[in-house]
Design a protein that fits this description.
The complex is a heterodimer of chains A (about 190) and B (about 475). With about 190 residues, chain A is of the alpha/beta class. Chain A is built from 6 helices and 11 strands. The chains are: A alpha/beta (about 190), B alpha/beta (about 475). β8 (about 160-165) of chain A pairs antiparallel with β9 (about 275-280) of chain B.
């Protein structure tokens, strides 16, 4: 018997009595402003969430990242000087300074946003960039993970993720260090 | 029935001996203890703000119950959907088969550099030495794992691999291996040095290997959680992605992730979510993706009625952080890939003899069970494993005789009362050197209580 058949046979031999799958996953939303709670959670994760108008975005990027190599996948709102579509090998993104992209959804309870293939163009871009700037419509903030998964089709794109801050580690004596392997900063522009 | 030999053949993990060596350095023990307790406190604060915390634990436990009760069906469903997504799915009966599979994929692509993110399963399979013997350069990219890899050691904790290492020692390792200044011990600067060093490794790797936190049967995708972004950086740059996955990681549908993601990071480090929670459903254009489904004793464990709940474990480490024994004995004292309370109930199923001491490496205080996000009754399993170990004769003759003797006395009320009277009388009269003679193992590190004049029963009779 091959591995597959052996494993499946062993599992069938040791099958336990059927157990019901829970059906109820609704929990009440707390009182309060979701946008505020979201911003607070992003802050707790080491990032920043800012309310901003579309016209302020170019200034925000120029002031925050002067002279930077900026790739934007939402050029309607944010200008960039690097076109990800023309990059063939993701390794060529090693010197990317800033990625600006639009998230579909945000979660207030944990300060995470959803990014997929379309927003990233190159999957590596969100991780190899020195700084990550995410645009998010404040109306697209839900309360918790249960609501979030009812809105996102995780298999629609080949890759998608929740990002909730800058890359970090506490592997050296539990000291928090921002900027482990991925982005050193995480800004969410609510626009 | 034959008595077991007084000398159990090696290698039996000598947890007590290793723990004694660990606590010999008192200052370091306190430092280790406090570091872990700090993480436990962060977990408490982070779980307390979720009003439905207990309901989530219950849901998580029930979802796992359900999934395990039809694991074969869900694995087939997962295989079908993942294959339809263009992912190559492999099945490995044991560690050896897993390692062979991984090597054959790497060999086919002539990959010489492999970047790995955290995977306790590959530790369990001892993948790194297997690949290194065959000429593959394996780089662990999680900072903590890189630290212990440079030190030539395994992780001492499943979430905090280098929790036992001091920053000065890391500075020394980095000085020797990464060329940092000789006396550098600042975590910020050491982390930056590792970032620069590992960027080069990410860019040169021909393959990336990750673990799997969750797999979704209905959609055929996997979820990997990290804070550093190392798993993603490896996978999205390399032409080949291999994910090693224990067969128990399956969840039925994507929305079940919500329950587990709300529990996982809060239980592990006190964060509300890990920085990156990546869902892989299809390889990127031009990339190849493989998932290796590994049994390695899991299907057998499913058949152990009293112990199968341990398969619900999501590897958050909460039971380890809270354990008073782990905090004061260190991860290496367990001599197993997964240390702490969860390791002590998983490993006896792998090798009862070798790990026969681990179910005893506990005070049965119950804290591990209280913090477990999937409600594994760890204390109860520890207690049951102790019984199994005794039944199988897998303990020292001293312990066996002592337990048999105590069992006999406690099972006979009159004998028990007589023994109590005698011991109270003796304790008041015998000189210290006899009370604390070599045979009194308990008294080696503890003072015996002052012997009371009367027993509880005497007092109770008088009082009522």
């Amino acid at each position: 018997m091959n591995g597959r058949a052996t494993i499946l046979a062993a599992l069938r031999d040791n099958r336990m009595e059927p157990q019901a799958l829970p059906q109820q996953y609704d929990f009440p939303r707390p009182e309060g402003n979701l946008q505020k709670m979201f911003a607070q959670q992003v802050g707790a994760g080491g990032g920043r969430a800012l309310q901003i108008t579309p016209s302020m975005i170019p200034g925000f990027l120029l002031d925050g990242f002067p002279g930077a190599r900026v790739a934007s996948t939402d050029s309607r709102y944010a200008p960039g000087n690097e076109d990800l579509v023309t990059v063939r090998d993701p390794r060529d993104l090693a010197s990317l300074d800033v990625l600006v992209c639009r998230a579909e959804l945000g979660i207030a309870e944990c300060g995470a946003v959803w990014l997929g293939d379309q927003a990233l163009v190159h999957r590596a871009s969100a991780f190899i960039t020195q700084h990550l700037v995410v645009l998010l419509d404040p109306a697209a903030i839900v309360w918790n993970m249960h609501e979030a998964y009812s809105r996102v089709d995780v298999a629609e794109e080949g890759f998608g993720l929740w990002v909730a801050g800058p890359s970090k580690t506490a592997d050296i004596e539990q000291s928090l260090v921002i900027g482990a392997h991925g982005a050193r900063s995480f800004n969410v522009l609510l626009v | 029935m034959s008595l077991p030999s007084p000398e159990i053949p090696l290698p039996v993990v000598d947890h007590a001996g290793a723990a004694a060596r660990f606590v010999a350095d008192e200052a370091r023990t306190d430092w280790h203890d406090e570091a872990l307790w700090h993480v436990r406190q962060k977990r408490d604060a982070s779980s307390a703000v979720v009003p439905e915390w207990e309901e989530l634990r219950e849901l998580a436990s029930k979802i796992k119950d359900h999934t395990l009760s039809r694991l074969d069906t869900y694995l087939i469903q997962f295989e079908t959907s993942a294959s339809a997504n263009g992912i190559h799915v492999h099945w490995a009966r044991d560690a050896e088969e897993h390692n062979q599979l991984v090597y054959s994929i790497l060999d086919r692509h002539q990959a010489r550099h492999l970047v790995k993110s955290k995977s306790m399963l590959t530790e369990e399979c001892h993948l790194n030495p297997y690949l290194e013997e065959r000429g593959i350069k394996v780089i662990d990219t999680d900072l903590g794992e890189r630290i212990v890899q440079l030190a030539g050691k395994p992780p001492s904790h499943i979430v905090l691999p280098a929790i036992h290492v001091k920053k000065e020692e890391i500075g020394q390792l980095f000085h020797q291996n990464l060329g940092t200044a000789a006396d550098e011990s600042d975590p910020q600067r050491l982390t930056e040095a590792a970032r620069q060093h590992l960027r080069g490794k990410f860019l040169e790797a021909e393959a990336a290997l990750t673990g799997v936190n969750f797999a979704i049967a209905s959609t055929g995708g996997i979820v990997v959680c990290t804070n550093e972004g190392n798993a993603d950086l490896g996978v999205h740059l390399a032409p080949v992605h291999i994910a090693s996955m224990g067969i128990e990681k399956i969840l039925p549908e994507p929305h079940h992730l919500a329950v587990f993601l709300r529990l996982l990071a809060r239980s592990a480090t006190g964060q509300s979510i890990t920085v990156y929670t990546s869902h892989f459903h299809r390889p990127r254009s031009g990339q190849e993706m493989h998932i290796v489904l590994v049994d390695n004793g899991r299907s057998k464990h499913l058949g152990r009625k009293h112990f199968r709940d341990a398969l619900k474990c999501i590897r958050c480490g909460a039971c380890i952080n809270t354990c008073p024994v782990y905090r004061r004995s260190g991860g290496y004292s367990y001599g197993s890939t997964i240390p702490g309370p969860i390791g002590s109930i998983l490993t006896p199923g792998v090798d009862l003899k070798k790990y026969s001491t681990l179910p005893f490496a506990s005070t049965l205080c119950g804290s591990c069970g209280d913090v477990c996000p999937v409600k594994i009754d760890i204390p109860k399993q520890l207690y049951r494993w102790r019984q199994t170990v005794m039944d199988e004769g897998g303990t020292t003759l001293t312990k066996r005789l002592a337990i048999t003797l105590i069992g006999n006395v406690m099972g006979r009320p009159r004998l028990y009362r007589l023994a109590g009277r005698t011991i109270r009388w003796l304790l008041r009269r015998l000189p210290q050197r006899i009370v604390y003679a070599r045979g009194n193992i308990w008294g080696r590190t503890r003072d015996l209580p002052d012997a009371p004049r009367e027993s509880f029963l005497d007092w109770f009779k008088k009082a009522s």
